[in-house]
Amino acid sequence: RAGYSIHTFQRAPDALEFIRGIPADVIISDLRMPVMTGAEFLNHASGINPQAVRIMLSGYEDKGVVMDALSRSLAQHYVLKPWEDAGLRDLVQHVLEQLSTQRKDRLSEILRTVATLPAPPGFHTKVHEVLTRDGSSVSDIAHVIEKSPPIVAKLLRVANSVYYGSRKPVSSVHDAVFFIGTEYVAGLVAAIEAFEGFACAAQQECIAEIERVWNAAVSRSSIAKHIAEHWQGCDVREEVYVASLLQDLGQVALLCYDPARYKEYRASRSDAAGMDGNAEYAFFGSGHDAIGAALLEYWNFPRPIIAGVSLHHKRTGGQVLPQILQLANILQRGNAAFPHDPAVDELVDPWRDRIMNGTGATR
Predict the structure, then answer these.
(1) How far apart are CA 134 and CA 43, in angstroms?
(2) Which of 151, 176, 325, 343 could disulfide-pair with 312, CB 3.0 to 4.6 Å?
(3) pLDDT digits (tens, 9 = 90+) for 91-141
């Protein structure tokens, strides 16, 4: 009732498997358990999910074991059984408030330190103004876009991408706008601006990685766009498309924040392990999802897009937009898309079949 997302487990190995996929903020463990003791469990948990606050529950007779666990930093807090419910709730609230403050400070430090932090995308607002003007045509939209050569170059690349399945080369902005769809153009231009803003000021060694992240975003967003257009009752199709393009912008911010550490982080991950939220926090003290969401909030992007980026590796709470982002991520990258909401797993095979077969079946 306090608004926390709570996950309980009967077996310690199951809990460890869970936090490998989705990092926890607080881990509460009994001391005496089957399979492994609470101290053993927290020892493993601290290695997998080091940023979590760990709380141990135990009776007075085990005080020596608990003191040893506290001295070894396996747990930060000890609650004596039987506990008072109000006291336990207060402790959880307190540690979460501290954690939230630390994360906000870390986010601010990263965003403040990024020397290449670009200005908020602004050119897309001109495109949006033309789109919303009565009587505007594809030619009018194309005329505005043509005033920015860097955006024209990337727009044509997107339009000619294999992910859009064009049967003939697209050589004009007019045809690109028509092919991609006028309802998606402003969002696409905003995403291009965001990536170009980082690329223009980044160190030369970072350019190839920024381009890699962008290419992956184009691939993923076309899948997300297809799913959203055929997801029954989905009324956030444009937001899905833009959020899918921008969901990994936080990676670019981390790259520009500390290129050497980012290179070390990338080298520490094997292809089999894929994206590891725990490792990201260990290297940078924050995750690219939180950084991307903070950046988009600073740029005053629409709230649904910010929320989607924030949740694209977390529990979705049944929200359609982050579910589609995660589903597109898995269909594009396979197991490398982790961590994600396990509830999305049941959607993967049906949607893979629909996309592979080119069908428009609804969810």
Answers:
(1) 63
(2) 325
(3) 999 888 888 777 777 777 777 766 556 766 778 888 888 888 888 889 999
Tokens matching residue 49? 């999910």
Cα separation, 122 vs 189, whole angstroms: 10
Alpha helices in the chain (DSSP H): 12-21, 38-48, 63-71, 85-113, 123-132, 138-145, 149-159, 173-180, 182-201, 204-230, 237-246, 249-257, 259-268, 277-284, 288-298, 303-310, 320-333, 345-357
**How many residues make up the chain in this entry?**
363
Pair 40, 71: CB distance under 8 Å? no
Confidence of residue 360 (pLDDT cuts 50, 70, 90): very low
Nearest to 23 by CA among 333, 318, 314, 342: 314
Q: What is the pTM of this model?
A: 0.72
Q: Is 172 helix (H, G, I), strand (E, B) or coil?
A: coil
In whole angstroms, give the CA distance from residue 51 to residue 49.
6
Pairwise CA distance, residues 214 & 217, whole Å: 5
Q: How far, CA to CA in Å, does 157 sit from each of 153, 188, 192, 224?
A: 6, 12, 11, 18
Whether 266 has a pLDDT exceeding 50, the answer reads yes
Residues contacting 342, CB < 8 A, separation 6+:
21
Spatial distance between the Cα atoms of 313 and 202, rounded to a whole number of angstroms: 26
How far is Cα 281 from Cα 287, in angstroms, rounded to an integer? 6
Structural tokens at position 239: 């937001």
